[in-house]
Amino acid sequence: MGRITINDVAKEASVSKSTVSQFLNNRYEYMSEETRGKIAKAIEKLNYQPNIVARSLKQKSTKTIGVIVANIVHTFSTHIINQLEMHFHEQGFNIMVCNAGDEPKREREHIEMLIAKQVDGIIAFPTGGNIDLYKRLYESRFPIVFIDRKIDSLPIPSVLLDNLLASSMAVDAFVKKGYKQIAIITNSIDQPITPRIERLAGFKEALEKQGLPITEQHIKAVPVDEVQETIEMLMKDIKPDAILAANDRVLIELLRYVRKKGLKIPQDLGVIGIDEVPYASFFEPPISTIEQPADQIALQASTILVKQISNQYESNSQSIYRFDPLLNERQSY
Amino acid sequence: MGRITINDVAKEASVSKSTVSQFLNNRYEYMSEETRGKIAKAIEKLNYQPNIVARSLKQKSTKTIGVIVANIVHTFSTHIINQLEMHFHEQGFNIMVCNAGDEPKREREHIEMLIAKQVDGIIAFPTGGNIDLYKRLYESRFPIVFIDRKIDSLPIPSVLLDNLLASSMAVDAFVKKGYKQIAIITNSIDQPITPRIERLAGFKEALEKQGLPITEQHIKAVPVDEVQETIEMLMKDIKPDAILAANDRVLIELLRYVRKKGLKIPQDLGVIGIDEVPYASFFEPPISTIEQPADQIALQASTILVKQISNQYESNSQSIYRFDPLLNERQSY
DNA sequence: TTGTAAGCGTTATCAT
DNA sequence: ATGATAACGCTTACAA
Question: Would you say which domain of life the source belongs to (chains A, B) (predicted)?
């Protein structure tokens, strides 16, 4: 098994290997019932499996897609991977999953490896580094779609959340309930990451629109492992009455802190998290979240990529695809 | 980019392609400083990337591993995938992730596709179907490692939790606190799945050892979407004072039910879940879990697979690798 | 309707 | 120290 080739089948069926190849590719048009049967029997008997590597070399298509996530620890990444696996599988593709761990260097290595392995396309959550590389790929018309982030200088199709709206939905929700001292916490990374930047910008904008004062003290961007101490400072300092957790990781830290201090949500602190989390609905109290429509995002991205691969994609169309967040109103604010 | 081959490099550097190949494979031994420089420059200039598909065809190694999970919805699967990606990446392999969705048919298609794509090895959470296929692979000495499940008739290395111990740890913990009416709920699938069977068996055994009566009414195996109604019946029926959720999906349903009914944990109901969940530590109350050492399991599995691939694996050694669960004692019982 | 032969981009063997 | 040449297993004109 695996060892046996089209030649063995040809011999077994006493036909030429090109005939077998025809058979394999379902080109029965000019094939006699008899040969067809012989070949089928030979394949069955030898338990033949075509070598797709050889086929790929010839056809210049591997039917595999590279997926590079910025950081696999986010539930969003995982969710997207699951959905991509499903959609691409339906389209006859396998996916190679790579994790950049927020490091541009690892991202670059992954991209180069994927290209070397001749994947038919790449879906990436770009770290923000490697713009040059993506530029080269774009210029050579290599199929790429970005998810979650975009690179402003490149018209690569990017499928992402309307982050400004996400933040403002949260702020508006808070304000409606009477919260006045609203803070936002996001985890920082070296690179300027689209969702972080946009969520921060949206937050400021929304506060402004609501006529609330904006101070830098209400806006914190720190590494995940510093989130707790940051909240601690925040609580001592400006005493916010509501906090927006900019993603699922931050939300966890926030909830840990709340429990550690015995705070009551929403009485002592209003909480909203961006990114839906599995426990939100049965938490005490249920946590309100701003959900990214990950399913739609993954579907859109895979659809565009498949179109690019089959040259069906109109590159003159818009390159940014925004999806509206969904507010899951629960009882945490 | 991608379009240019070793021939182009050879021409650019005015050497033969075999020399370039030597260079690419770091066989500098008999190579003059000069040619080395020329080739390096040409590669740089042309931005050459070797075609690994062609290399794979020749070398019969793709440096990629197929990973087939039974069902990607479990946090355990996701956790394992993340760890495998990391370990294999360190060893120079990429992973192709496939989801069988608990369907043997899909599993079979995935295996066949992976074999056709000439992966160097497979890590699988076998659904329980396709024993024949695995048998063939095993007999042809194809590198495979199972995670989470085993197939009794096949000596394929299998890395999994000591499920008996996991159940008994839970039962013992419950008993120690005075619980008497202990039930277990697992989600059923058609096939006889190792962890389910073993956790159920371990549960019965532990009850026996504790001198508690065993009735089939305390043991429920139903599809996830029927878990809630099953608990409902259970509560009306035998009124358990403690429930062991056999995995993370069941735990979620259980917690949903508890919240819906306004039950108090642990006063009204003791709860332990097998599988660690992200929210366990800051839930109200913190949920006790029996954690699978996913990191160790993934490491062990990848290590064995890599050994098999490089013929370093002693197949006469044991084929079942058990890992001890870890009880995270929190306040839910 | 089926077979021959070239070619995909490498690596590997063997000359030179 | 470097180059010709034959594989690797398949597809695809083109011949027959």
Answer: Bacteria
How many structural domains compose chain A? 3
B38 lies in the same domain as B80: no
Mean pLDDT of A95-118: 97
Is B333 inside a domain boundary? no
Does a structural domain hold residue A56?
no
Q: Report the amino acid identity of residue A219.
A: I
| B200-217 pLDDT per residue, tens | 999 999 999 999 988 999
Q: What is the DSSP letter of B113?
A: H
Give distance CA B21 / C1' C5 (Å).
26
With a pLDDT cut of 90, the percent of chain A lying above it is 91
Give yes or no: residues A142 and A218 share one domain: no
Residues B22 and B72 in one domain: no
Query: Which residues of chain A have a CB within 8 Å of the CB of B259?
Result: 282, 284, 286
**DSSP β-bridge partners for residue A65:** A95, A121
Q: What is the pLDDT of residue A45?
A: 93
What is the CA A23 to chain-centroid distance, rounded? Answer: 39
Domain range for B81 = 62-161+295-325
Interface test with B, best of A117, A140, A142, A261 (most B CBs within 10 A): A117
Q: Are A191 and A104 in contact (CB under 8 A)?
A: yes
Q: How far apart are CA B53 and CA B40, in angstroms?
A: 22
Any A CB within 8 A of B302 CB: no
Name the pairing type of β-strands A182-187 and A242-245: parallel
Pair B197, B155 in one domain: no
The bases of strand D with some atom under 7 A from any protein CB are 1-5, 7-13
Structure tokens at A150: 């975009």
